[in-house]
Amino acid sequence: MRGVDLCAIGDSFVEGRGDTGTDGAFRGWVPRLAGQLGLRSTRVRNLGEHGATTAMVCADQLARAVAGRPPLVGVIVGVNDLVSDYHPRRFAENLSTIHSTLNATGATVFTASYPDIPGRLPVPPAFTELLRDRFARANEVLADVCRDTGTLLLDIAVESRWDSDAVWSEDGLHPNASGHSLFAQTVAERIAHTRDTDLAA
């Protein structure tokens, strides 16, 4: 996977689920971001997989991403841990492994916090509150990992735009085309700001 300018790893948020193109395939934020950054599609790799957990990323996607030595890497993973197979210590350790490994390559690494997906899922109120507590704790862990490793954190969990139904699919779990477009725009703006700040330093 040599010659990669942008690599994205993670779950169905990365895969592009919720944003189906005219050919029936998922589009998502990865090619949208590549377009905004002026990257050729042949130099972009999307390793996102539906249902992927942090453990699955550590076991498979992480090594494949590092092998390409891309200068820009996006990571979105963890929701499947939180809603189905949650072990707090393993979750934190996996996030730390993913982000420390990627940042050690010298790449610019970015990720995003976990928005209020629990509030959109058709589950009993008691389970909604349980999940919200997990998501809140997970965001604290992710913030600590990003601070320790240097990953750029897009804190979409506190952005009002992500509270709107207009950016989510009917399943409440995946962004729709508007949501994927919004995320790509948010990442592009953050990267531009970071580069401008580095140049000014």
From TrEMBL:
Cited InterPro entries: GDSL_Rv0518-like (IPR053140), SGNH_hydro (IPR013830), SGNH_hydro_sf (IPR036514)
Chain ranges of the SGNH hydrolase-type esterase domain: 8-181
Protein name: SGNH hydrolase-type esterase domain-containing protein
UniProt organism field: Williamsia phyllosphaerae
